[in-house]
Amino acid sequence: MNIWIDADACPVVIKEILFRAAERTRTQLTLVANHSLQIPASRYIRFMQVRHGFDIADNEIVKRMAPGDLVITSDIPLAADVIEKHGTALSPRGELYTANNIKARLNMRDFMESLRSSGIDTGGPPALNQSDRKAFADQLDKILTRHTKNG
Question: Rounded to two decimals, what is the model's pTM?
Answer without folding.
Answer: 0.87
